[in-house]
Write a structure and sequence with these properties.
Blueprint: H1 3-13, E1 24-27, H2 39-62, E2 68-71, H3 72-79, H4 81-84, E3 86-87, E4 101-104, E5 110-113, H5 118-128, H6 134-141, H7 146-155, E6 160-162, H8 166-171, H9 173-178, E7 185-190, E8 210-214, H10 219-228, E9 233-238, H11 246-252, E10 256-260, H12 266-276, E11 281-284, H13 298-304, E12 309-314, H14 329-336, H15 338-345, H16 358-381, E13 384-390, H17 391-400, E14 422-427, E15 430-435, E16 439-441
């Protein structure tokens, strides 16, 4: 698999005009990071598809065509944006709780715990009956068989994953449930008249388009950020009671406004419903069914706002016994055989993750790509649309690309190595140094029109 073939797959699967591919230049080849997986191909293709979809939205609005260029090293820098983030020239941000990581079990297996949210950490410590200390957690886990602990934590609504081989994953009912699903889905869910991708002037592909971003951490926020860098007005909506990770709020908040609404409250739900009435895209990354239970299903919002593009991001897919299991990028890597395969190739005694949160970032870009394809369809044929992606389906695609023998031996790409991929901006958090958008459009360069702001800075209202 090459970046060009991967992009062709995405573009064709979305039913887009193949002629547009002639306007794309892709530079670089794997390995771009130390991994046996074709992470660079994944990054380049996903970002190029997003840039090309933005260019097509611009063409539909103005008749102007443009070229799109993506260099693999810049795409990989974007895929590691949270790792390269710096605030006030300080050290790399702390992104993980000390207890998070791999642990050996009684039966010779490995399990990964994900404890970045305080309530997830507290819940795991309660199940294990131990202190908040890595050594104490390791000792407690040595008293459990891996599969039993994995299921016990999942049943308790906590975040963990037994390290499985690809063969073990393929045998699971969850893997079989999503095996025949496409990489992404773009489905018409209602009727509406044709409508432009944005409002007012068209100096940027998504100028005037309004996006509600109900997501946290990386995949969903990265999708909203990708839409913002092409001119959309993105309003991030967080629950005031929900936990977050501060560096990710900064990194993925670039280009966005930020408000809070408590969807447990009927009046606050009404306020969100009012915002939906004037939105173009509703982006959400809650577990399948969670927002539908609050009255915000795709079908319900298509009634509120005919012409809406509803985007759903999940961890393990929307169907199967794990559909509502809590999950994050690293857990999907662990469950699906990626961490097992990386460790075997590197002759490591412990499991080994990819050198970036590749499933998160790729899924985010695929979500933004799907949203823009849906906007283009709305412009030509009308309708309301539902775009659906998941980390597990993205991971399956990465695994299908084949492996690079000894790719894991590639040297690390350091912060100093990517300085030409970075920009510095002033923000309420201080002076922020972050990665630039990786796609280059000749007529409408991608950029962040706003610095990141603290959660709840803005009113839950559209800017005029």
């Amino acid at each position: 698999m090459t970046p060009h073939l991967a992009l062709d797959h995405l573009w064709t699967a979305a039913g887009c005009d193949a002629a547009a591919l002639d306007a794309v230049s892709l530079i670089g080849e794997d390995p771009g990071l130390p991994s046996i997986y074709r992470v660079g191909t994944l990054a380049t293709a996903a970002i190029a598809a997003t840039g090309l979809a933005a260019a097509e939205c611009f063409r539909l609005r103005t008749g102007c065509r443009q070229r799109v260029e993506v260099e693999m090293r810049r795409a990989l820098a974007a895929f590691r944006s949270e790792r390269y983030l710096r605030v006030n020239d300080g050290p790399p941000p702390a992104l993980r709780d000390p207890v998070m990581g791999f642990y050996a079990t009684r039966d010779g297996r490995w399990i990964q715990l994900h404890t970045n949210f305080p309530h997830h950490l507290a819940g795991i410590l309660k199940v294990l009956g131990c202190a908040n200390d890595r050594a104490a957690v390791a000792e407690a886990i040595r008293g459990w068989d891996g599969a039993v602990l994995d299921q016990t934590l999942a049943d308790a609504g906590l975040c963990a994953a037994l390290i499985r081989s690809p063969r073990e994953w393929a045998a699971l009912e969850q893997a079989q449930a999503i095996a025949n699903l496409p990489l992404f889905e773009i489905m018409r869910i209602g009727d509406a008249p044709p409508e432009s991708a944005g409002r007012g002037g068209a100096d940027r592909p998504l100028a005037g388009a309004r996006v509600l971003d109900l997501s946290r951490i990386i995949a969903g926020p990265a999708a909203g950020r990708a839409l913002a860098q092409h001119g959309a007005q993105v309003l991030m909506i967080n629950g005031p009671h929900l936990p977050n990770i501060a560096p990710l709020v900064i990194d993925n908040g670039r280009g966005k406004r930020s408000a809070t609404l408590d969807l447990r409250d009927a009046a606050e739900r009404d306020r969100l419903r009012g915002l939906v009435g004037d939105a173009d895209i509703f982006l959400q990354a809650y577990r399948p069914g969670a927002l539908a239970a609050r009255g915000f299903s795709p079908e319900a919002l298509a009634q509120v706002r005919p012409g809406i593009v509803y985007v759903s991001i999940s961890a393990y897919g929307h169907t199967g016994p794990w559909a509502k299991r809590r999950g994050f990028d690293s857990l999907v890597q662990s469950a699906s055989g990626i961490a097992w395969t990386e460790s075997r190739a590197a002759h490591s005694d412990e499991p080994k993750h990819l050198p970036c949160q590749a499933l998160d970032h790729a899924t985010g870009y695929l979500a933004a790509f799907g949203a823009m394809v849906a906007l283009a369809r709305r412009a030509t044929e009308g309708g309301s649309w539902h775009v659906r992606v998941s980390l597990a389906q993205t991971g399956r695609w990465l695994q299908s690309m084949g492996q690079i023998e000894d790719g894991w031996r590639l040297p690390e790409v350091t912060f100093e190595d990517v300085q030409d991929c970075m920009e510095t901006v002033d923000s309420p958090f201080g002076r922020i140094r972050g990665t630039l958008p990786a796609e280059r459009l000749t007529e409408t360069p991608a950029f962040y029109g706003r610095p990141p702001v603290p959660i709840g800075t803005d009113a839950a209202a559209w800017a005029e």
